[in-house]
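INFO  loader      accepted 1 record
INFO  loader      residues=332
INFO  predictor   begin
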Amino acid sequence: MNVALIGTRRAAAHARWLAAAPGLTLVGVAYDTDEQAAVRLASGHPAAEVTADALSLVKREDVDMVVVATPPRAHEEIVALALHRDLRVVCETPLAADRTTALRLSELAELRGARAYASFPWRHNEALCEARSWILRADVGEILAVDMTLHDDSHLGPGTRWSWRQRLGEGGALMELAPHLFDLLRWMTGVSAWDVSSAWTHRLSDMRHGPHGRSVVEVDDMAQVELTAFGQVTRARVMASRVCPERSLQLVFTGGKGILRVTADPTDGSATLTLKTGSRSVQRLAAPDRMNPYTRLDDDDPSHTRATFDDGLLALRTAHAALALATLQNEA
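INFO  predictor   done
INFO  writer      dumping tokens
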């Protein structure tokens, strides 16, 4: 299967995953401004061309799948073209810069009967898959409370490498990081409907130093959201930060029978699972995990590890609902 990769920054992880996935050949990398980065990504793939014309690359007759890893505002045109050509699509999170565009893409994918996937790599972590099976098997009983924290160091300090990540609707802890947690919340608990009950955000600085000068910061650096499972007693707290000196994912599921803790390293995918109930205590150390979504594209998916555009839309809707509440709180 021949793959076209659109983007250069987040696309680096996709290039590594594609190289490790059997049966996939990277035939092109499209860039907007950073040609050197595109050349570096293509260097490990002899068949890959480098081009500044993303749409022409998507139109190539020999392309079977398109991976879109551009800033969110550039997603729609590229993704829509790929869907109309009946190509497979993998799109980075967030699916779009706004809910209306995300809905259009989700509806188009359904209309075309497309194999279109949102990029939620944590679904492909074997330790989290095991933790999910324990939860769905009711090893901790009915889930009563969930606590999720994602720490990232991408904006630690006064600078930024990505001016677009300072724009409202595209960057920030709430719109970039929290959707991954919202998706994990739905996927791991099996509860699809959650209402946002409260939210707050915090911005450390109104200005950052970027590669081309000073960048105005319109988004948050930290966000916390509280949610309630629709029609159930379950409560959840989701917290995301992009200004922490360490990178970590911490999940705690409290049930009627016990508690399950997951601590994972986003850098290498390693994790520790600890399950404690009244009758037993189990701890498992999981080895580093590449969380490669491309090794399972053609497999049966009984655990629903592949996230669809609908999943991406749900995560984005939750983020926007939280943003609306946080904005009201900040203006009060």
